[in-house]
Amino acid sequence: MAEKNEIKQAIEQICEEKNIKYDLVIETIEAALAAAYRKDFGEKNQNIKTEFDAETGNAKVYDVKTIVEDMDLEEQEKMWEEIRERKEGGEEIAEEDELKHFNPKTEIMISEAKEIKKGIKIGDELIQELEIPEAFGRMAAQTAKQVIIQRLREVERETIYTDFKDKEGQLVTGTVQRREGRLVMVDIGNAIGIIPMDEQVMNEKYNTGQRLRVLVLSVEMANKGPQIILSRSHPDVLKEIFSMEVPEIGAGTVEIKAIAREAGARSKVAVWTEDDNIDPVGSCVGQRGTRVQTIINELNGEKIDIIEWDE
């Protein structure tokens, strides 16, 4: 295949930059090449599979057919005609009386298959390598590159969606990129998240380049890719920061039972432990208030009252 070095380098670069699995890129390329071959040299709905060798840049093309029992096609056509007439006459045909059409594009009868490969049986796949036309070799690289770009965008979107869907309810660290009207756009690694107006804290400025922790509130797949909604005002922002800054909460020995939060102004956190040897409030406050002060600084001065949970 032409331009093999360029394609191989592009694959490696995409994998590194976009954090996409190498095997997934190869699968995408093989699907693109199969579609290109089927369109220009094969038949519609033909089951074409390809193997792409990233080391050499070469591709192999295969025709794949499922082995089915022998059929008398003329007799089958007569039976189909009879069934069609019965249906047109208003008769309901039982599922077991329906006939399965033989599809020569994706199926091959057992007797013919055995002439090609001995020992094969019904239900197996007969895979035959096809000769690659010279024209396919010339145009494959360009066709593949065009489809690869499109498909890789889809793969990247799916990868981002999966990664951040798993992080819903968790804190991530991001950098404020810009404002778009009332929205704050935050760079959270390999994606851009949005802090809507109602998830912002009123006294926070969100200056470009500012680093901050944000809660991944929701992740949905939209037409243009994953839409990642972030929050700074949700009570779980406070809960997650406590989990990070207070080891006893992170370990589960101290539990946050309730949070009442007026984001940017004041919050009240009720904590509890079943261990009589642990002071839950003291664990959260820290020696000389160091732990709670770190949390207050993270929330730009929001006052935090920590109380012991009372059922």
TrEMBL record:
It comes from the Bacteria. It holds the Pfam family KH_NusA_1st. One of its GO terms (cellular component) is cytosol. Keywords: Cytoplasm, RNA-binding, Transcription, Transcription antitermination, Transcription regulation, Transcription termination. GO terms for molecular function: DNA-binding transcription factor activity; RNA binding. Residues 169-233 form the S1 motif domain. This is Transcription termination factor NusA. It comes from Candidatus Komeilibacteria bacterium CG_4_9_14_0_8_um_filter_36_9. The lineage of its organism: Bacteria, Candidatus Komeiliibacteriota.
